[in-house]
């Protein structure tokens, strides 16, 4: 597949835009380098690049595009919002409408606030948890990504009960010391952490179903135990549902799993593709936020009519009957097909799937935590990724990401994808 224009545009981009991309995950670093594809149009499950090559898209813009590209109802909602003026700086009825919809879908959100990104949402839940508890430390799980605020760009210490160190230049040691990182699905490590630091911990940050080292589900009882232990020690539980909310059902992963946090951070899907974040939770905690309380958080763009309109339209699409059944059916077809082809070509791999989101891991049989995901075969993934891309299948360029199905994908798309995978696995098998 020729991608001459992408090559030219990437060269040009690197002259003007740092690294040629506006988010590092778009560069092909995770697949050993290469030229990112410059897309020019998306419609439904498909993309067309600047050379007019067509792709079936499984990136879904890293998650938000669950309704497919340019979904007519969402597009219409954005057009109407634009015609009425995109930004007011005053309250609007749309914010009430959207807040009510979110609360109806995710009942633990007694009060909500809209922000502009998942990063902001998570960052603010941490501030609010600190304001509420009067404590400074937080716990997070290894390999989970919670945006790029200083507080969460922190690497694990040498054991579960040791304090963190900066995971990015520019994050101070003092900030990192407030963050403790423990392995996901390891309740003993979490208990040990609380025994050591419990009285200083404001909150634990949890992706209830992990989406950032592939899709990884919590072990049975793990989230319940995290809740119990955290509350016993006087801390709060924050769910980062930026990826998971409305992914598996009309509601949060918390509603899907029937285990509930004190606060939740949201983003991605709820904006229908426009910039958004939101956070919310127990009313007595949320009341710590300005203008009612002493914890400050604000935003010029927060709750803007365009994002509200796109979000409302997206949730209306997702509320339709059969949506999640469709995603699950396609996910199952894809998973079964990928595993069958892997066996056919004697390539060792496993698939973790929750409904319409899955990750294909190479060189392994089980993935329940980050270390296992990190140890999977990067070269095989890179070979597979490139072979798929050259056959018009657009996956995320990293072994840690998920394939996201949209309601626009069809069984024929899955079958075409599997045909491409047959060749891609063959290539993996010979390298
Ligand atoms: N939390 C999670 C779980 C995420 O996956 C992401 C983004 N991938 C974020 C937070 C940050 O969201 P944003 O990129 O909108 O700032």
From TrEMBL:
Highest taxon listed in the record's lineage: Bacteria
Tagged with keyword Transit peptide: no
Cofactors that this protein relies on: pyridoxal 5'-phosphate
Enzyme Commission number(s) from the entry: 5.4.3.8
Record keywords: Cytoplasm, Isomerase, Porphyrin biosynthesis, Pyridoxal phosphate
Catalyzed reaction equations: (S)-4-amino-5-oxopentanoate = 5-aminolevulinate
Keyword Protein biosynthesis in record: no
Location(s) in or outside the cell: Cytoplasm
Matches recorded under PROSITE patterns: AA_TRANSFER_CLASS_3
N6-(pyridoxal phosphate)lysine carried by residues: 268
A GO molecular-function annotation: glutamate-1-semialdehyde 2,1-aminomutase activity
Recorded metabolic or biological pathway in which this protein acts: Porphyrin-containing compound metabolism; protoporphyrin-IX biosynthesis; 5-aminolevulinate from L-glutamyl-tRNA(Glu): step 2/2
Complexes and interactors: Homodimer.
Family: Belongs to the class-III pyridoxal-phosphate-dependent aminotransferase family. HemL subfamily.
NCBIfam families, A to Z: hemL, PRK00062.1, PRK12389.1
Protein's recorded name: Glutamate-1-semialdehyde 2,1-aminomutase
Organism: Alkalicoccobacillus gibsonii
Gene label: hemL
């Amino acid at each position: 597949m020729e991608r001459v224009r992408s090559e030219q545009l990437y060269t040009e981009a690197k002259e003007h835009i740092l690294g040629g991309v506006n988010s590092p995950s778009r560069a092909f670093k995770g697949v050993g380098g290469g030229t990112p594809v410059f897309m020019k149009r998306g419609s439904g499950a498909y993309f067309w690049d600047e050379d007019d090559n067509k792709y079936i898209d499984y990136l879904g813009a890293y998650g938000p595009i669950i309704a497919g590209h340019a979904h007519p109802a969402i597009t219409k909602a954005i057009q109407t919002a634009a015609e009425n003026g995109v930004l007011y700086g005053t309250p609007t009825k749309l914010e009430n409408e959207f807040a009510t919809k979110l609360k109806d879908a995710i009942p633990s959100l007694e009060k909500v606030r809209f922000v502009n990104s998942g990063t902001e949402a998570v960052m603010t839940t941490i501030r609010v948890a600190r304001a509420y508890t009067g404590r400074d430390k937080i716990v997070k799980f290894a390999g989970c990504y919670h945006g790029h605020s200083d507080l969460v760009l922190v690497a694990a210490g040498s054991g579960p009960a040791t304090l963190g160190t900066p995971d990015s230049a520019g994050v101070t040691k003092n900030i990192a010391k407030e963050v403790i990182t423990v392995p996901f699905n390891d309740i003993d490590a979490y208990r040990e952490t609380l025994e050591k630091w419990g009285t200083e911990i404001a909150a634990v940050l949890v992706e209830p179903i992990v989406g950032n080292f592939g899709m990884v589900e919590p072990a049975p009882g793990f989230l319940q135990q995290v809740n119990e232990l955290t509350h016993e020690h006087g801390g709060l539980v924050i769910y980062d549902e930026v990826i998971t909310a409305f992914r598996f059902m009309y509601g949060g992963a918390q509603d899907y799993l029937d285990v509930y946090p004190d606060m939740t951070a949201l983003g991605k899907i709820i904006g229908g593709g426009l910039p958004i974040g939101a956070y919310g939770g127990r009313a007595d905690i949320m009341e710590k936020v300005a203008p009612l309380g002493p914890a400050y958080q604000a935003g010029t763009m927060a709750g803007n009519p365009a994002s509200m309109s796109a979000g409302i339209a997206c949730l209306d699409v997702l509320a339709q009957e059969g949506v999640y059944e469709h995603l699950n059916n396609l996910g199952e077809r894809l998973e079964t097909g990928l595993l069958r082809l892997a066996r056919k070509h004697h390539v060792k791999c496993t698939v973790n799937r929750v409904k319409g989101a899955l990750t294909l891991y190479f060189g392994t049989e089980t993935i329940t935590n980050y270390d296992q995901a990190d140890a999977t075969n990067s070269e095989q993934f890179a070979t597979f990724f490139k072979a798929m891309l050259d056959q018009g299948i657009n996956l995320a360029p990293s072994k840690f990401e998920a394939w996201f199905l949209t309601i626009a994908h069809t069984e024929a798309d899955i079958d075409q994808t599997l045909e491409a995978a047959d060749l891609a696995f063959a290539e993996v098998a010979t390298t």
